[in-house]
Amino acid sequence: MPALRLLGRKWLAASDDLVFPSIFELLFRFVWLVLIALVVEVLYPVTWQCQTDGWHGGSFVRLYLCGTLTLQAALMLLLAALAHQSARGTITDVDIRKLVSPLLLIKVLLVLPETALNVMGTMWMFCEVIECSVDDKFSSIVIQSIVLFNWVQLGLTVFGLFMVFDPLGSVNYGDMQDTPNQVRHHRKVTGLWSRRFRWAFCWLKRDEHGKEAFQQVAALLSALFRSTDLVPSDVVAGCVLLRVRQKRETREMRRIQMLNDEEPIYTTDVNKIFSETPPWMNLEDALYYLRLSIAAYGWPYVLYRHCFTGFCKLATHLTCCCCRPKNSIVTDDNCCLCNFAGVKYMSKLPADDIIFASFNNKVFELPFCVIADHERECIVVAVRGSISLRDIFTDFTAGSEKFEADGLPENTAAHKGMAMGANKMLKRLLPVLDRTFQQFPHYDLVLTGHSLGAGVAVLVALKLRPRYPHLKVYAFSTPAGLISREAARYTESFVLTVGVGDDLVMRLSVHSIENLRTKIIQTIHATKLPKYRIMLNGFGYALFGVPARDLESTWRRPEDLEATHSDDSADALLVPSVSTVSAEAALVSRDIFVRRFSSARLFTAGRILHIARRKRMGIEKKVRTQEPTYEMRWACPEDFMELQVMPRMLLDHLPENVHRTIQTIIEERHTYRVTHIV
Asked: Which residues are CB-neighbours of 330 under 8 A, at least 6 positions away?
């Protein structure tokens, strides 16, 4: 940070990104240098005895050997200097690394003589053009290997240049501010991302809304990091630093709670948690409907969970192509009804209880199942979560649009991709529900889903509630940016949302990503460590956690590093008590914080039960006790407005981990009851 300037343009790399590449290449070239030196020691005297001594004989070979040896030595010195210069200073200390650009330019220019020498080696070893044979087998193998590895290394160099090439690198950072130039640049970046999507995901263009999704996601990616001059490695380093910063803030909050003798927010008492809730809000029913939500994922989830035995588990539920009925309740499945087989296997329900199953998966269209639950006397609609690239584009069509349904406050906004998915789903669902409730008029309606499926289920429920006022929704790991605040409050009476631990998706919204972007910039300005040290620390944190000493030693002034509150107001970033470390960081933060991709802030819907793993204290760390593994509390949507960089932020979102968590709580609760009775 900022991006590296070379050959009159900026690249998607920074001047401090070259430490590890330079060291790795230096080690390889050292091995090459030793091997070439041995070959020269053996072959140089022999070259005077070649059949011819001109440019088709010994002179050619001597030039190749001496030139390769000299070039490898020069490149090693250059790489050592490049690694040393790139390692100097912090991420923002660009001036101290001013020699990186000229050194890198020399390195790029040396590709030309290196290529020429490699061509000479190829002609000598592989083309039999040079009349100077090598009788020593070791030398011959070494030269051939070095020539081949050099071609591989040159190919990797070209590939690396392609990866860090910025098509809009000729634009200066000063021209990307809130001016007409910045607007034009934003349009160019949006168009560039849109073209990349059309090329990389060309098969999605056939979908009815494929091009619209490309445009929406391209606009989002363009808006998130415009005018920041960040490169990908800066974002990675910023996330590592945020992990340290957030752990430090958590420690300070716990210390304050202990000093104030505050009551813990979380509790392990399940009876206390559900003492004031309607009877239908309970963990047993939540676990049951979560199983149906998982069943909607179909055969890919079965193979994911049972890599070696999945096919055998599905085989007994498959339908022969010849035996498939003409008026099937299953639509858009393959010839053997593999998805339907996955639903039957995971739901543990007979096929007769599955009234309808649609596996049509396109952009803004999600598969879903309609199930008759005779034991609970309800009709269950299970909506599938994200599992395909089409679902990812639905997820990231994350702008807000007006959402209308009877009973909702005026000017309600919702996640655009999920709102379009809900409208598409209703067209297929309504006729099925009408037929089903004619057959089972006294049954209730329940909707359930996980992740994207949870968000769509909530929006579908809002549309259906005027017709089915007693419907209920069990939503699991619902995305944060779903619906506006007043509408989210309206859903608390009929939506139960369950989230586990540090689930990333429950905190993922356009606003939270924009806030993360701002905090990354502030945190990068706050650190006193060079980027290579941050990356090395990141590997250590992933394996062993963040040590206590790094909570203070990472920062220039730890006492000034305070949590930045999420506030749409730009002035909040300039309050003296909030650390922005430097005037430059404050100005950059303010400049990007006031620009929002989405004008409306969206929240998680329903009454939110947040479950977290209980932190073991004192003797519990050494002695295994009968204390519960998890604790929980009723949370509000505002608790999930900030992205947390945590080790389990992806694992806690997976449906099998959510299922295991709820199941463990129920089992431990039963065990605790039995123990006390005995």
From this structure: 337, 339, 340, 356, 357, 359
Q: Which residue has the tokens 């020429």?
A: 116
Sheet holding 630-635, edge to edge: 330-331, 354-358, 368-373, 378-383, 444-450, 472-476, 495-500, 607-613, 630-635
pLDDT of residue 55: 60
Q: How many angstroms separate the CA atoms of 120 and 123, rounded?
A: 5
Cα separation, 384 vs 382, whole angstroms = 7
pLDDT at residue 97 in the model: 94
CA 197 to chain centre: 17
Does residue 264 have a cis peptide bond before it, meaning omega lies within 30 degrees of 0? no
Residues 6+ apart with CB under 8 A from 285: 376, 474
Residues facing 496 on adjacent strands: 474, 607
Q: Which residues pair with 449 in a beta bridge?
A: 383, 475
The residue assigned the tokens 């005895």 is 49
Which helix (H) or strand (E) segment is 81 a member of? helix 58-86
- Cα separation, 249 vs 262, in Å, equals 17
Classify residue 170 by burial, with Cβ atoms within 10 Å: 0-12, 13-18, 19+: exposed
pLDDT score for 140: 85
- Distances in Å between the alpha carbon of 608 and those of 381, 500, 641? 20, 10, 13
Cβ-in-10-Å burial (0-12, 13-18, 19+) of 439 comes to exposed
Cα gap 557→534, rounded to integer Å:
17
Structure-token match 């972007």, residue found: 517
- Give CA–CA dist 91/96, Å, rounded: 10
What pLDDT sits at residue 347?
94
**Cα distances (Å, whole numbers) of residue 56 to 43, 44, 48, 123, 130:** 16, 16, 13, 10, 5
Question: Which residues in the chain come in under a pLDDT of 70?
Answer: 1, 51-57, 131, 169-183, 185, 226-227, 261-264, 321-327, 559-596, 617-625, 672-678
Q: What pLDDT sits at residue 479?
A: 95
For Cα atoms 387, 393, 397, give the angle at the middle one, nearest 5 degrees. 130
In this prediction, residue 677 carries a pLDDT of: 52
pLDDT, residue 619, reads 56
The per-residue pLDDT for 578 is 36
**How many CB atoms are located within 10 Å of the residue 311 CB?**
14
Task: Supply 440's token pair.
Answer: 């089972």
